[in-house]
Amino acid sequence: MTLRFVSGRLLTGVALLTATLTGCNSGGDKTTASGTEQNATGASALTAGTWRGVLLTQGQEIPFLFDVATDGGKPTVTLRNGEERLKLDEITTAGDSTTIRLGVFDAALVVRADGADKLKGTWVKYDAPEPYRVPFTATKGAQKVFPVTGQPQSVDGTWNVTFKDDEGETYPAVGVFKQTGSDVAGTFLTTTGDYRYLDGQVEGNTVKMTTFDGSHGFLFTATKQPDGTLKGDFYSGKRGHETWTAKPDPNAKLANADAIVGMKPGQKRLDFKFPNVYEGGAISPTDPKYQGKVVVLQILGSWCPNCMDETNFLAPWYEQNKQRGVEIIGLGYERSPDYKVAAQKLLKMKERMNVGYDLAVAGISNKDSVAASLPQLAAFKAFPTTIFLDKKGNVRKIHTGFSGPGTGKYYEQEKADFNKTIDQLLAE
After folding, report:
1. Domain co-membership, 384 together with 297
2. How many CB atoms lie within 10 A of CB 341?
3. Rounded CA gap, 385 and 406, in Å?
4. Within this chain, do residues 234 and 292 fall inside the same structural domain, yes or no?
5. I need a surface site. Which of 52, 167, 333, 388 has the fewest CB within 10 A?
6. Same structural domain for residues 280 and 422?
7. Domain span including residue 176
8. What pLDDT score was predicted for residue 45?
9. What is the DSSP string of 203-243?
């Protein structure tokens, strides 16, 4: 996605989703400056079953479901967003406080018991530019994201959507919702990516959908109007808020993602040399390893859920196709300007997601950093961005954003277009 909020199917054990600030302050949690727990002893407050968690922010409740189980005698937590399952296994207990690391993301849920089958704590994002803590509660036994008693109206189908932020700036989107009874799942596609798996319910003329992937907590609400349109609000984490309107439109589509970003006039190649995630090395597209091969450059950050969706596609794809004369270079733009910290985040992503292609530390996670480090680009709009180089090293295509598995048929088209581009470049 764009940095508007700084910021598939079964990702069991694959981290879309971890930790580092000082003094996480919920329920006696004790962390070092690097985010590692001390004195990890004591009984966990987590008991097996399905739980309904709630993030309390902006005067709203952002609920989500998660399952607690045991694996090898150790507790695991699996976040549920529609059909997505995100398994978390980095869980430690110190005193009465349990810390649930949120995969590759530098974040955690820090919780303690709050009575029988109840939890209380905090969602912490350790790498945020300022202290980021959101109150969290959970109750065991719930099976729905939102309780429903009334009869639902239909919001099923494809919608032409316009979002507006609090400064009045607007941007287009496509809403794709699948409704079964009162249950609804789907997502919003934008020109810079999608809002991933959304899950919720419809009660009467009101629809509510949420997602929590460890990096983002989103709440979408809307009321169906007499003319069949939708009008509602979008809440993101501690401060993000936008309004949105939608009209039914089975033919709704966005601008061509291959035409959003281009090269500056007269430029055909990208000239860079970035440090490898393994200290002491460096990566450049002119290295002998890449000569005469088709090369894919993935501009990403380990903090970015859409980037993780793309990585979850690219990592196995690379293993299946590298023998064809294709290489991938991941250019990581992390939140920390410290090389060692940034490299550690990318290495954790590499390990958890089985990334076999090369990764470099390219800069910090903002558009200006990308523009400065890749000055041949005419612009930069969003993480992730994918750049295709032909066998001569020339830039042949720049694709902004990534439509992930939560988008259904759009994800299938995304993969098909990627393969078509690779096949064409290999055939030359």
Report:
1. yes
2. 16
3. 18
4. no
5. 167
6. yes
7. 157-248
8. 85
9. EBTEEEEEEE-SS-EEEEEEEE-TTS-EEEEEEETTTEEEE
Alpha helix ranges (H) inside 268-338:
305-321
- Residue 113: phi and psi, rounded to 5, are -65, 145
Burial class (CB in 10 A: 0-12, 13-18, 19+), 149: exposed
Q: Cβ contacts of residue 404 below 8 Å, gap of 6+?
A: 8, 193, 194, 196, 306, 309, 310, 411, 414
Burial of residue 223 (number of CB atoms within 10 Å: 0-12, 13-18, 19+) = middle
Please state, as a whole number, how many other Cβ atoms lie within 10 Å of the Cβ of residue 205. Answer: 15
Name beta bridge partners: 133: 124
Statement to judge: residues 242 and 307 lie in one domain? no
> Which range, of 36-50, 166-180, 288-302, 325-339, averages the lowest pLDDT?
36-50
State the residue for tokens 């020109």. 191
| pLDDT class of 83 with cuts at 50, 70, 90 | very high
Q: Is residue 82 within 8 Å of 32, Cβ to Cβ?
A: no
pTM greater than 0.85: yes
Report the CATH number at residue 208. 2.40.128.120
Return all residues near 266 (Cβ < 8 A) that are at least 6 apart: none
